[in-house]
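Hi Prof. W.,

I finally got the Porin prediction working! I wasn't sure whether to trim anything, so I left the full sequence exactly as given:
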Amino acid sequence: MKKTILVLGTLAALTLPSLAVAGASSTVIAVSDYSYNGYSQTEEKPALQASLDYGWDNGWYVGTFASNVDFAGGGSDLEWDAYVGKYFQLNDNLGLDTGISYYSYHGGDTSSDLNYAEVYTQLDIASSVGQSELRVAYAWDYFGFDTSHVVALAAHTVEVSEGHSLRLSFSRSMSQDETKWAWEGAKAYNNVRLAYLTSVNNFDFDISVEDTNMNVDEGDARVVLSVARTFAF
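And this is what came out:
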C-alpha cells in the first residue's frame, strides 16, 4: 500500500469532511515516505501523489488517487486507485462515511496480480475536545492472496492553537489467514502515529512521527513530512 502496501494502497491523504463538500477538487501531495499504517510503500523514499474528487450535495462522492510505489522485488512503480462512497451527516456532532475502494498496481509483469478491492466505514465524532475518528476497512482478496484482511483505526485530533493541531492515531492491521498473508510471520501488527498539522498560504503541512511493532526497515520508527495543496473547481 495509502498497501502502504501500500505494501498497501491509500486514501490517507483525504479527509472525510472534505469529501462531504459538493463540487470538484484535486489535491497534489509531496511526501518524504509513502507510509500506510506505518509500513512504507516506497522503501522509505519520497513519493509524489495526486487525487481528483467530485462530491454531490447529497453526500455521494467519487474519486481517484495515484502515487509512485516501490515494492521490493515486485517491480510495481505505480499505484492507481478509484473509490466511491457516501457521507452521512447524522447530526451536529456525528458523521458517517462508507464506501468501496479499488487498488491497482502497475509497472511490473505481474503487478496486476496485486489488485484488490476494499470496503470501509468511518465514524467522525466532534466534541469540545477535538475530532475523533473510528475506521474499519475490509478486503476479501488482499493483494490477490485469496485471504481477507482488516484494518481498524482510532484517531483523535485536537487544535492546540489557532491553525495548529495534533493528531494521535492507532491502527491494527490483521490478516485473517496468516498461512496466505502474514506480516513478517505475524498475523497482525500495530502502528502508532503522532502528527503536527498546519496550513500556510493554502499549503497543508503534516509532520509525523510513527512506529510499528514490526522489526523491519519498512516498519521502523521514522519521521514523515508531507506538503499538500488542494484546488477546488
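The domain at 16-232 is CATH 2.40.160.40 (Porin). Does that look reasonable to you?

Thanks,
D.
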